[in-house]
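Posting for a labmate who doesn't have an account.
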Amino acid sequence: MSSLKRLPSWLQQELPVSSFCETSAFVSKFAVHTVCQEAHCPNITHCFSKKSMTFLLLGNICTRSCVFCAVEKNNASVLSVDEDEPFRIRDCVHALGLKYVVLTSVTRDDLEDGGARIFARTIELLRAADQEIKIEVLVPDLEGNVLSIKSILKAAPDCMGHNIETVQRLSKILRPQSDYARSLKVIRTIKDCAPQTKVKSSLMVGLGETEGEVIEAMRDLRAHHCDICTVGQYLAASSRHYPVQEFVSPAQFARYQEIGRQLGFTRVFCGPKVRSSYYAEDIYQEALHV
């Protein structure tokens, strides 16, 4: 298993500026979690500088053991649910003046509904505070629980996503407690239950997959009625995480983007720095006008 350590020029990151520090201060002030921080996202400087972030619901400890993810893991202890968290997120959103909010969560297999109630409550509070706000949610697989999916959809997010993360062959290696087919079923269920909602999914590349496998995964997403697909470069958070096998070239990302268009996605966004929530508002708005 190879490990590539030197980043190519196209993956160089920005240095922090004052606006980054201001956003970080708000996150700390309201004691909320972001996946940007917990997952060590390399785009955090860029996004925080633009007051763009993805809030992480249900705390910052995950019950699954995905080998690519930097979020803290604990599948042995009983974890709590912070009932005040949705209120703090609402207040943080208001203080920052956000008009497009992205919500995701750790996976909570210890909860009967997978945490769907907290998703719905957060959406409801944000809508009550600002009826014009747009809300995108990125959910775990919720163990395929249709009632949990429906309860989140009842709160009417504008966009709802679930990431398949990788190609089918590598799925069990990278996400041992997840299931590729179940993830696809979640995507199909979202669209079947709420046809008007934009449905989104994301893939990482550079994990040892082939081009053919990436195209197959994109075809699978389209077959399950996924509207928006993003594809980005995997970067290992540390030496303890699954090693990068390849730095995919910008030309190859451009090829994936063109293939995605041909497959019929409403919007496809591929690039070395792309993550599922990268430029989320722009991608959503573009998808509405296609």
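Reply:
Got it, the structure tokens are right above this. The chain has one domain: 9-288.
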